[in-house]
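Checklist before submission:
- one chain only
- standard amino acids only
- sequence pasted in full

Submission:
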Amino acid sequence: MSDILEMITSYKLAEVAAAKARQPLQVMAEYARSAPPVRPFADAIRKAHAEGRPALIAEIKKASPSKGLIRANFDPPALARAYEAGGATCLSILTDGPSFQGAPEYLTSARAAVSLPVLRKDFMVDPYQVVEARALGADCILIIMAEVGDDLAADLAAAARDWHMDAIVEVHDEEELERALKLPCPLIGINNRNLKTFETTLETTERLAPRVPKDRIAVAESGIFTPAEIARLQTAGVNTFLVGESLMRQDDVTAATRALLAKGAA
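Returned file contents:
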């Protein structure tokens, strides 16, 4: 585990302990049961593919540990509407505060503004967070194999299934992919960012995507900025992309989203 991931995991465990003290699991579960119905996340991606379109998971992200502030003019509902108008299939919303300047209310407000399914992009270290995600209205969670062991990954996946949510299982190398494929999750996220150096290379997706079985959906994450890069990854058999920073930096997010997807349609 990289130093940054260790640091995040440490404060995330403390956050979860504090949250459990404020709102025990049974209380959070009541909130989750009264949340808006789940919007099928993986099915939305499959529908885009069936219609001959690349599926974009467009990310609402204010900042990151490696790049600092990404977007000063930050209005999650407006950004969600811009992405939807631009042709995004799903949304990814950062809810981590210390490292990404995210917040849980960003997810709730953005989801309420659109009809798209939403991923809670955060660092899951306890099944409690899955229930919390559903209470916020999330339709999908992220499981980072570099951060969790096999038993915890299985518990997170089971909790997502119990709440009728999907999960993206994120991997960075062959060993993590092998572990991820043991989980009953349809979405395999291939992160092109090296967690130790923070450098990105699309070669990571090109190397790992052929190892993802056809009954799973490979999702290319990080380092995607242009239609040419979308086309390059499509050549590697990937047709689902999680993109945040390159779109977050644009003045006209709708136009930028349309432009990114324009040449990817079949």
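Reviewer check: The mean pLDDT is 95.
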